[in-house]
């Protein structure tokens, strides 16, 4: 299996200014992400960025990088531009690894990429939820699957809703009930990646504020790799940054 990892990295961040360039043990965060992605066995790893400072940081550490347009509405649009620029074939597999995931598991990247087929142009990942608080937390995105392991729906709501179990108690997970938490890692066939930016935004996507619902709404399949391992959290807050810095200082 051959696949390319493209890492979208914008300099602007509301909570953490210059987040991709935050120092983690002597290297910028975006470089740490690229190094982890390279361990997945990807044929190539490319950073897709909107800012010359990120380009300079990547070049200093010998990380492949492309400067993109600054007006992309999403990271998916940004990686599509780079995939087209580097001339990937339509059947090539492209994995979108977020630029704030310096502890991402390389095996998870590889397993998600492996799910792309001619019939399934997009893949993502999930893990079982064991915490009742996460089950009811709207900031935790849930996914339900069909028998083939493809996504039926993503939601911030508690899905599937255990009617009888939750009627008795919402203090713990009902026996045998196993909700899945979505992990924000995506793989695409390049042909679908180039199609995606032209898809009309979906009403469901706008209601839930979940971009992946656009894919389902338009009738495309999303395969889901379910891992038993809970991924290390990304970097969204100053507290997250401090946690990751402690990891790289040991």
Outline:
This protein is an alpha/beta fold and 250 residues long. The chain is built from ten helices and eleven strands.
Secondary-structure blueprint of this entry?
Layout: E1 3-9, E2 23-24, E3 27-28, H1 29-38, E4 44-49, H2 52-60, E5 64-67, H3 75-85, E6 93-96, H4 106-113, E7 122-128, H5 132-135, E8 142-145, E9 151-155, H6 163-168, E10 180-189, H7 190-195, H8 203-208, H9 213-217, E11 222-226, H10 238-249
Parallel strand pairs: 1-4, 1-6, 4-5, 7-11
Antiparallel strand pairs: 2-3, 6-10, 7-10, 8-9, 8-10
CATH architecture: Alpha-Beta Complex
Low-confidence region ranges: none
Helix content: 25-40%
Spatial extent as radius of gyration = 18 Å
Structural class: alpha/beta
Order of helices and strands: EEEHEHEHEHEHEEHEHHHEH
CA-CA gap between termini: 34 Å
Task: Give your account of this protein's structure.
This protein has helices at 29-38, 52-60, 75-85, 106-113, 132-135, 163-168, 190-195, 203-208, 213-217, 238-249, and strands at 3-9, 23-24, 27-28, 44-49, 64-67, 93-96, 122-128, 142-145, 151-155, 180-189, 222-226. It has a single domain (3-241), classed as Spore Coat Polysaccharide Biosynthesis Protein SpsA, Chain A (Alpha-Beta Complex), CATH 3.90.550. Strand 2 and strand 3 form a beta hairpin. The protein is an alpha/beta fold and 250 residues long.
Q: What distinguishing features does this structure have?
A:
250 residues, 9-stranded mixed beta sheet, two-stranded antiparallel ribbon
């Amino acid at each position: 299996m051959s696949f390319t990892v493209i890492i979208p990295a914008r300099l602007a961040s509301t909570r953490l200014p210059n987040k991709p360039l935050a120092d983690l043990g002597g290297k910028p965060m975006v470089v740490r992400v690229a190094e982890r992605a390279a361990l997945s066995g990807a044929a190539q790893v490319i950073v897709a960025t909107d800012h010359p400072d990120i380009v300079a940081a990547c070049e200093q550490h010998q990380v492949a990088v492309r400067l993109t347009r600054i007006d992309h509405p999403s990271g998916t649009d940004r990686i599509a531009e780079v995939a087209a620029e580097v001339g990937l074939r339509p059947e090539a597999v492209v994995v979108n690894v977020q630029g704030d995931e310096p502890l991402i598991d390389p095996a998870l990247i590889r397993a998600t990429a492996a799910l792309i087929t001619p019939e399934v142009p997009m893949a993502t990942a999930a893990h079982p939820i064991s915490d009742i608080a996460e089950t009811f937390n709207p900031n935790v995105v849930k996914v339900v699957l069909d028998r083939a392991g493809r996504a039926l729906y993503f939601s911030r709501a508690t899905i599937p809703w255990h009617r009888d179990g939750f009627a008795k108690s919402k203090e713990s997970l009902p026996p045998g009930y196993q909700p899945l938490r979505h992990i924000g890692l995506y793989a695409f066939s390049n042909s679908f990646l180039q199609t995606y930016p032209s898809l009309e935004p979906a009403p469901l996507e706008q209601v839930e504020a979940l971009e992946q619902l656009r894919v389902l709404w338009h009738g495309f399949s999303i395969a889901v790799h379910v891992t038993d391992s809970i991924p290390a959290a990304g970097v969204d807050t100053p507290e997250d940054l401090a946690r990751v810095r402690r990891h790289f200082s040991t």
